[in-house]
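Collaborator request, handled under Task 6.
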Amino acid sequence: MYYFEYERPESRAQAVQCMQGDARYLAGGQSLIQAMKLRLSASERLVDLGGISDLKGIRVDEGRVVIGAMTTHAIVAQSFDVRAAIPALTVLAGGIGDPMVRNMGTIGGSLANADPAACYPAALLGLGGIVHTDRREIKSDDFFTGLYETALEPGELITELSFPIPERAAYVKFKQPASRFALVGVFVSKLGGAVRLAVTGAKSTVFRQIDMEDALSHHFHPDAVTSIDVDVVGINIDMHGTCQYRADLIRVIAARAVAQALA
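Structure tokens returned to the collaborator:
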């Protein structure tokens, strides 16, 4: 690991002030620290957000679930408030990694990292959530811009995430057994006449499967998606599967997610 300076501010304002030069925010560190150990990433300064208490916590108000950016996956998975409002979110959080990852990793860190096989990006996009930062609000459709890339500007700090409470929602993933990342994961939600279906693990970034959304808006049932052929253009190819394999998985996992949402 390369040499770096370490800062642990106690407030948002102090954190932003520390972001000078080649600095990066440190949330749970489950991705960044491992990359730095392997010398795949380097920064002159890490600004640890763990000491900022008002970046943590969960509340439900005005038809929304609001989660602080430094709230861990384990806290989301165990939250009675989240389970009552959006049970699919607790299922998703409880299936991330292993106990160590869930107790250290944070929702804000996961979304800022934008791993193409991570689970939380599917929830944000599949629910039509909003990323709140120290500067603005970013809609989920505008947040993910590419492989490990987001709309965040240098030094911009995610403060909390808000999710509308849907009538129905579910998350299902076909996981890589060692890492528990998604080979394909699907988050589907229904709110009024609007249906959103987000896919993670299949391309360089999370995306919405619009043809499935259209079909489900007319008939919210697994049968609505089982006959849809997914275009293989842009689908990942790696040691775990071909593009056609993942395309077929999208259809299968989407049908399972809809069935689970109806259960």
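The cover message to the collaborator said: "The mean pLDDT is 95. Residues 243-262 form the longest helix (20 residues). Please let us know whether this matches your experimental observations."
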